[in-house]
Amino acid sequence: MSDEESIMPIRQGSIDGLCGVYSVMNATEVVIGKFHYDRKLGRKASQRRVLFKNLIGYLSKYDLLEETLIWGSDDIDAKGGFIDIAIKSVKKYQMRKLRKKIAFDTDDVTLNAYWEKLTEHLNRPESAVIICLSGRIKHWTCVRRITPSAMILSDSSGIRRIARGRCAVSMGRGDLYILWPTLTYLLSVV
């Protein structure tokens, strides 16, 4: 096999840091169902495209686009940030109220307490959780369901599930998924 044949193409999303944007979009869709689509407005005006445009516009407005594209987002919940933009989108297109809540006010939480809180929240209809991971991967993702042994994701990079046994809270070995309680957002429709 020649070098030319062994080179794999670069996949969209494999080197950009837009996981924060996609985690909010995926969580929004998990909570509300499919995004609104108005045939009269055409493809360019679907709620999904408008929300993406607004999220990218936010990054551009605050001169964060280049840094986020390269290094990702540390904070998806700044006042008026990604989650607030999604809340406005749901209100405008679905005429429903999307609510966010930070799961914990400290990172000093056990894995059992973390799992219990997410389980309680996700047992409600029309709910999702956005989490920040570090350790094995630095990544924002959406948890759509949780079982006693795994988190089931709606994820932009293709991760489908994370086993509980591969998780730690706030610190741990680099081969584990490190969960951050204060960077865990509970979303639901009120």
Alpha carbon gyration radius: 17 Å
* Head-to-tail CA distance between termini: 57 Å
Q: Please identify the structural class as seen in this structure.
A: alpha+beta
Total helical segments: 6
Q: What is the mean predicted local confidence, pLDDT?
A: 91
Order of helices and strands: HHHHHEHEEEEEEE
Low-confidence runs (pLDDT<50, min 5 residues)?
Answer: none
Number of strands: 8
- The percentage helix is 25-40%
Spatial shape:
globular
Sheet with the most strands? 8 strands, mixed
Write down the domain tally. 1
Give a structural overview:
The chain has 190 residues and is α+β, with helices and mostly antiparallel strands. It has one domain. Helix content is 34%, strand content 22%. It has six helices and eight strands. The chain has helices spanning 3-6, 19-32, 47-61, 65-71, 82-94, 111-122; strands at 98-102, 127-135, 139-146, 150-154, 161-163, 167-169, 177-179, 185-189. Strands 1, 2, 3, 4, 5, 6, 7 and 8 form an eight-stranded mixed sheet that branches. 32% of the residues are buried.
List keywords for this structure.
6 helices, single chain, 190 residues
Q: Can you summarize this structure?
A:
With 190 residues, the protein is of the alpha+beta class. The chain has helices at 3-6, 19-32, 47-61, 65-71, 82-94, 111-122, and strands at residues 98-102, 127-135, 139-146, 150-154, 161-163, 167-169, 177-179, 185-189.
SSE blueprint and pairings:
Blueprint: H1 3-6, H2 19-32, H3 47-61, H4 65-71, H5 82-94, E1 98-102, H6 111-122, E2 127-135, E3 139-146, E4 150-154, E5 161-163, E6 167-169, E7 177-179, E8 185-189
Parallel strand pairs: 6-7
Antiparallel strand pairs: 1-8, 2-3, 2-7, 2-8, 3-4, 4-5
